[in-house]
Amino acid sequence: KDDIELDESDMVLLTDKFKSAYKEFAGDDFPQDPFTQLIEAVKAVFRSWNNDRAITYRRLNDIPGDWGWPTNQPSVITSRYSMRWGKLHEGIDISGTGYGSPIYAIADGTVVNVSPACSSCYQWSNGNYVVVRHDNNIYSAYLHLSGFNVSVGQTVEKGQIIAYMGNSGFVTGTHLHLGLYEGEPFAGGYT
Q1: Residue 111 DSSP code
Q2: Across all residues in the chain, what is the average pLDDT?
Q3: Is the dihedral of CA 49, 55, 60, 62 positive or negative?
Q4: Which residue, of 71, 110, 162, 166, is most buried by count of CB atoms within 10 Å of its CB?
């Protein structure tokens, strides 16, 4: 059956099967506390990055497995990679530790674009942004910045401060938009 064809008794059966599988895998009952469920879901995402299938995929496609995080902690992903307002939101939005807080390179690379906000430009909605080229034609784009700490052609290391969090461009508040692309962003690359 498709999920839209499931009735209440089907959902009860499915939930019982899931809880049984969870207990077999985790060795404990499925948690009822929503906060615990959230924490366990986050842990599952991080574990999936290091499972055999993910490691093999990265190795076969020359993708590094040691990306860094671009903001100070605590941070919250406030918008995910998904369809939004009728178009694809090509990255994640991260609220970090406020306006002007440091933005870090997520991996070693070379800065290929440092763009001040331009209300007449095609990409005006991105505000101030930095683009870094990494190995294997992978690029990271950091948008809505308040300022820069790098210049085009500069080599950067993972964890190096490259910019500062801001609210430039089309935004609803201070945050970092982080996008990953195969090929150069805003020049034919895709997420």
Answers
A1: E
A2: 83
A3: positive
A4: 162
- How many alpha carbons lie under 13 Å from residue 182 in its C-beta half-sphere? 5
Torsion of CA 93, 83, 158, 66, to 10 degrees: 120
Strand blocks (E) in the chain: 76-79, 82-84, 87-89, 92-95, 102-104, 109-115, 128-133, 138-148, 155-156, 161-165, 176-182
CA–CA separation, 131 vs 51, rounded Å? 29
Q: What is the pTM of this model?
A: 0.66
Q: Which amino acid is at 123?
A: Q
- Summarised one tens digit per residue, pLDDT across range 132-142 is 999 888 899 99
Task: For tokens 């294997």, name the residue.
Answer: 136
DSSP state of 76: E
HSE-up (13 A, CA, CB side) for residue 48: 6
pLDDT in tens, 99-158: 999 999 999 999 999 987 655 555 667 889 999 999 888 899 999 999 999 999 999 999
